Amino acid sequence: MPTSSPVVASWELALRLKRRREQLGIEVRTITETLGFSRNYWSAVENERKILSPETLSRIIELFEFDDEEKDELLALRATAKERGWWTRYSALFDADIQRLFGLEQGARSMRGYESLLIPGLLQTADYIKAIMMPDVTVRQIEVDQRVEARLRRQHRLIDPDDPFSLTVVLSEAALRQQIGGRRVLKEQLIHLATLIERHPDALDLRVIPFTATSCGLFGAATVHLIDFDNPQLPTLAWQETVTTWGIIDDPIQVNNITTAYEDAYRKALGKEESLQVILARTKDLD
Q1: Does residue 2 register a pLDDT over 70?
Q2: Which CATH number fits domain 6-81: 3.40.50.1760, 1.10.260.40, 3.40.50.720, 1.10.1740.10?
Q3: Ranges for the HTH cro/C1-type domain (predicted)?
Q4: pLDDT at residue 138 in the model
Q5: 39, 92, 111 from 283: Cα distances, Å
Q6: Contact yes or no for 179/188 (Cβ under 8 A)
Q7: Domain at 94-285: CATH architecture
Q8: Per residue in 235-267, pLDDT tens?
Q9: In this structure, are residues 90 and 150 in contact, taking their beta carbons and an 8 Å threshold?
Q10: pLDDT tens figures, 154-194
Q11: Strand pairing partners for 240?
């Protein structure tokens, strides 16, 4: 199924062109001499910083010996890549890496995430989001409101009936106890979490790692996501976020290491029903 995300379309287009060039052993010099542009320009194409015109892309397709079906696919990817995702409305608030995450999320089939101390962004209430942001006194109220709006818009991905998506979350029990925003905000957040689990059993798989767990490969990590796609040509990507650094990880070895650690955490977490009961019990504790 074609992707609905300009970010994923741009990535897939660049990836397929680069793979084909390497498969055929075509040197960059051959491309630049044939099409009359610089090596730096082609580098920007392969690194998603430039999107070729339809005419130039058609010439590349011919040079790279793609068949008619692949030609149609690549031209369709280019058309989608030129569109603007909803997240571009918030470009003044978020850097390029975070906007890329939004775009990848929009075009993903599924995501697997780990959180050590916070409820994941795709599952947060508006008050919980605000409570996370408010300690930053440098952020104006209007920016807080826009950031909350953007995060709530991201959550449409989880419940979109026309574009199936699944989210698997491994959550430290600490996230159920840290009173972000105070007892009321946390309680409402946990009620919201339990409601999502019960309403969307096919889309949401949430597991809690209890305090009794003696080890876990992700202990010490903050926020980690693994992003998977329908298209078998697109590899799994990882997103890692700490207080001062964040970004996409595409190195296959690093992604494999994160995947192995995530699978270990998933095995050591409670089952779905047990996790739900822990959340409900914690909610009652906050009465």
Answers
A1: no
A2: 1.10.260.40
A3: 17-71
A4: 62
A5: 59, 37, 26
A6: no
A7: 2-Layer Sandwich (3.30)
A8: 999 999 988 889 999 999 999 999 999 999 999
A9: yes
A10: 999 988 888 889 999 999 999 999 999 999 999 999 999 99
A11: 224, 247
Closest residue by Cα to residue 42 from 11, 21, 62: 21
Q: How many alpha carbons lie under 13 Å from residue 92 in its C-beta half-sphere?
A: 6
Q: What is the residue whose two structure tokens read 């689990």?
A: 197
Give the integer Cα–Cα distance in Å for 264 and 280. 25
Label residue 133 by pLDDT band (50, 70, 90): confident
Q: What is the pTM of this model?
A: 0.92
Residue from 282, 63, 71, 268 nearest 175 by CA: 282
Gap between the Cα atoms of 45 and 40, Å rounded = 9
- Give every CB contact of residue 37 below 8 A, 6+ residues apart in sequence: none
